[in-house]
Design a protein that fits this description.
The chain has one helix spanning about 20; strands at about 5, 15, 30-35, 40-45, 50-55, 60-65, 65-70, 85-90, 95-100, 100-110, 120, 125-130, 135-145, 155-160, 165, 170, 175, 180, 185-190, 195-205, 210-215, 220-225, 230, 235-245, 255. It is mostly beta strands. The strands form 6 sheets. It has a 7-stranded antiparallel sheet with strand order 1-22-19-24-14-13-12, with no helix packed on it.
């Protein structure tokens, strides 16, 4: 099975990955588009927590007695500002109303209901710059390990044109904390301008898994294990929304030893 999930060009659902379709245990992901005035229902099942990210547009999100009005507001994921998001415990019914055209993403992972529903406001998210030179990229921590959740880790990254990202190649597929943690991962890609593409490779040390992909706007890449660098061609910026989850909610990674020299001064 290919690790590349192609975006649907039309319809409400853009991409969807479930633990069953991916052949793994933890990460679920779907993205959807709403037209202005449309409503959508997303029901978290028992045993699955969720993080709803308002990628673009302005929406209302209601869940039981809670109503978060007019959250979001970005016209593009490439704006230098953070998104709004909603953390929801298992078995939460989410109802969404779009005030304008909107794009949303729902990340899910195992949970038992230890944390309450809450708004994760854009102005509470930490933004940072990672790397240097042509390895510079811009990071927004939406749901990092320092914030309350049971399994989910969610982050978005903007990679300038002609830059690399998730680089040097690194992996997190062994439960060997603190050297490395075991985390499944998805990459939801956006490209600017949208007719462009990114390159992503997913490979293991023994090359038992070694897949290279040309990734188009709104495509998703699954990373069950292995190293997973991304490279943007000249003229095109890249964005990706990362979702990670595994048996322990910590992010420790190991660089590919062949390329670790890039981190030395």
């Amino acid at each position: 099975m290919s690790l590349l999930v192609k975006a649907r060009p039309e319809g409400r659902r853009i991409v969807q990955v479930t633990p069953e379709s991916a052949g793994w245990r933890h990460v679920g992901f779907e993205s959807l588009r709403l037209r202005a005035g449309e409503d959508a229902a997303l029901d978290l099942p028992p045993g699955r927590e969720g993080c709803l990210v308002v990628l673009t547009g302005t929406v209302d999100v209601s869940a039981g007695a809670h109503l978060f009005e007019r959250i979001g507001g970005r016209a593009s994921v490439f704006e230098p500002r953070s998104p709004d998001a909603v953390y929801a415990p298992p078995a939460t019914p989410l109802r969404i109303h779009a005030h304008e055209d909107a794009e949303l993403a729902l990340a899910t992972a195992p949970g038992q209901g230890r944390h309450p529903l809450r708004l994760i406001a854009a102005d509470t998210m930490q933004r940072s710059v990672r790397g240097q030179g042509s390895n510079t990229r811009y990071v927004c921590d939406i749901l990092p390990q320092t914030e309350a959740a049971e399994s989910l880790l969610v982050v978005e990254v903007v990679t300038p044109a002609a830059h690399s990202s998730s680089y040097p190649p690194h992996k997190h597929d062994s439960d060997n904390v603190p050297q490395e943690s075991s985390l499944e991962e998805t990459y939801y890609h956006r490209i600017d301008p949208p007719q462009g593409f990114a390159f992503q490779r997913v490979y293991t040390d023994d090359r038992e898994l070694d897949e290279s992909m040309a990734v188009c706007d709104r495509d998703l890449v699954m990373v069950p294990r292995g190293y997973h660098p991304v490279v943007m061609p000249h003229g095109y910026r890249g964005y990706y929304l990362n979702v990670m989850a595994g048996p322990r909610r910590v992010w420790h990674f190991k660089n590919d030893p062949a390329h670790d020299w890039l981190m030395k001064p």
